[in-house]
From TrEMBL:
The protein's name in its UniProt record: Transmembrane protein
Keyword Cell division: no
Organism superkingdom: Bacteria
Record's keyword annotation contains Metal-binding: no
Region Disordered, residue ranges: 89-130
Low complexity bias (residue ranges): 89-122
Keywords for the protein's UniProt record, in alphabetical order: Membrane, Transmembrane, Transmembrane helix
Organism lineage: Bacteria, Pseudomonadati, Planctomycetota, Planctomycetia, Pirellulales
Residue intervals passing through the bilayer: 16-35, 41-59, 155-173, 193-211, 264-284, 335-358, 370-390, 424-442, 473-491
Length: 517
């Protein structure tokens, strides 16, 4: 953006946390009712930022240390063959070390050998850092600076898990909160729309202007999931580390044709998915909540979150969130909702654990169409894996459904599980998560749209605790649903038997009035 906005610089993540926190309090804090659930929710949302900052800063320091070590090793390796080319008889005698005068003479004398006394010329650009070997990486990890960076990152993950555990409790208690007073944002609908559109334009411009150098340093790596999605590069909108020794980041022209194509596809998908999230939030607020102002406030708050600013271009974050959100939007159509849930579960298998909850919601009407649509979506995605290549088809299917050994070593996992937590503790967390998933099939007995939203958010929050590849950072999976839960009205009459197939009940008139677009 600096090309068409003079001296524009992307805000520092810490600066953005302060700015967004003040804006969030000013726009959504209920000052007339200080002790309210809305204010507690706003505080929880703000408290998600410090942990995210610590994780990113710790990773940035680790990445910079690794690049510096790699650059030093590469420079030393490139200097060895230059010294080896010097013949023994051409070297200066040991008893007569070269002086400034002799060096000057050797440089000016026509018959002199420059390699005997002249230092190797510095290269025009530093050697490209290479990947560290296992021995070199182990030595780097034993340094004090690297340990401090890892400790900062570990503290950030623990902070994130602590706040997300409180969010999980909030979502589990939400079905018990029957009284939901109308608490609109402290700004008009037009002002919220203007602020949201402005934020969206700047964030999408950051995605478009992101450089390949930044893309190569995104972490943590993707875990099991859909092979075609894992092939796409990450598009982070903030640099992880500075250039080493003045090295310029590569441009798009320096990438191969395949890399350029994948980069453009990833950017387009990220922009479309973020647009789908915002449009879905607005439509849910207008159609299902009967309150466009609440939908605009929810969308603006999503854009204000520091997480959204830092992970705008992460395809594996936002695409499942958009699909789940549109399934909520189309909950009146079990067939369409099933296609969206099936697509989300196929691209990233964690939404598979939403099926007991959603099937229970449609149990009295529409469960057959919903389950059939889920199977169709999964079958289509499995068939497309034939074009993935690289690995056998069955291996791709195995990764698609996450059928892998959960007790992997710390070298294969990332996030908190490589920073001191034994991977064996993932097993009881996974068991507890499966129990929670099937528990929602029977509780609450009568499910409405509000319970469907809050319980789906609870399952996506709980998935962070056993996600072995950066769990805690994938807040986009639950953030839109969490915001909808915060802003939603009482939706007790939105049950499957009253809203599916257009069959009326005594409360049909009031339900239609609230759901009108």
């Amino acid at each position: 953006m600096s090309e068409f906005l003079l001296y524009y610089r992307r805000p520092d993540p810490t600066t953005w946390v302060y700015m967004s926190s003040f804006l969030t309090i000013g726009l959504f804090f209920v000052f007339r009712r200080f002790w309210s659930i809305r204010n507690l929710d706003i505080v929880l949302l703000i408290l998600l930022a410090p942990g995210l900052l610590m994780v990113n800063e710790g990773y940035r320091r680790q990445t910079r240390l690794a690049r510096l070590a790699s650059a030093e090793i590469s420079a030393a390796a490139n200097a060895i063959p230059i010294e080896a080319e010097v013949a023994p008889e051409e070297a200066a005698p040991a008893e007569l070390p070269p002086t400034d005068e002799t060096s000057s003479e050797s440089e000016t004398s026509p018959g002199s050998q420059p390699v005997t006394t002249e230092a190797p010329a510095e290269p025009e650009s530093p050697p490209a850092p290479r990947e560290l070997t296992a021995e070199e990486l182990t030595k780097l990890q034993e340094s004090d600076a690297y340990r401090r960076a890892a400790g900062l990152q570990r503290t950030g993950f623990i902070t994130l898990f602590g706040i997300q555990f409180l969010v999980l409790l909030r979502m589990l208690l939400d079905p018990l909160m029957v009284r939901r007073p109308l608490l609109d944002p402290n700004l008009t609908t037009g002002g919220l729309n203007f602020l949201g559109i402005s934020l969206f334009i700047f964030m999408m411009a950051n995605v478009v202007a992101s450089t390949p150098e930044i893309q190569q340093e995104q972490g943590p790596k993707l875990g099991p999931g859909y092979a075609l999605i894992n092939m796409l590069p990450a598009i982070p909108t903030r640099p992880i580390s500075e250039a080493i020794a003045g090295a310029e980041p590569p441009t798009m022209a320096e990438l191969t044709a395949a890399e350029q194509r994948r980069t453009m596809i990833a950017k387009i998908i990220a922009i479309l998915a973020q647009s789908a999230v915002l449009i879905g939030i607005l439509l849910i607020g207008n159609r299902h909540f009967g309150n466009l102002r609440a939908g605009a406030g929810c969308a603006t708050l999503y854009l204000l979150m520091p997480y959204t600013a830092q992970m705008t271009g992460r395809v594996d974050h936002v695409v499942p969130a958009a699909l789940i959100l549109w399934a909520v939007l189309m909950y009146r159509k079990p067939l369409i909702a099933g296609l969206f849930i099936g697509a989300a579960a196929g691209l990233l298998y964690y939404p598979l654990f939403l099926l007991p909850l959603w099937c229970s919601f449609y149990w009295q009407r529409g469960v057959g169409r919903f389950a059939g649509a889920v199977l169709v979506a999964l079958t289509v995605l499995m068939a497309l894996l034939a074009f993935a290549g690289g690995e056998p088809f069955l291996t791709h299917v195995q990764r698609m459904f996450g059928v892998l050994n959960p007790n992997k070593g710390p070298n294969e996992l990332t996030g908190i599980w490589e920073l001191g937590w034994n991977p064996i503790w993932r097993l009881p967390v996974i068991v507890g998560y499966v129990i929670l998933s099937f528990f929602f099939a029977v509780w609450p007995g009568q499910k409405n749209l509000g319970i469907l939203i809050s319980c789906s958010a609870a399952l996506m929050v709980a998935a962070q605790f056993w996600h072995g590849y950066g769990g805690g950072l994938y807040m986009s999976w639950f953030l839109p649903l969490l915001l909808l839960t915060i802003f939603r009205p009482n939706l007790q009459d939105r049950v499957a038997t009253k809203v599916i197939d257009g069959r009326s009940r005594p409360t049909r008139r009031s339900s239609t009035a609230l759901d009108a677009a």
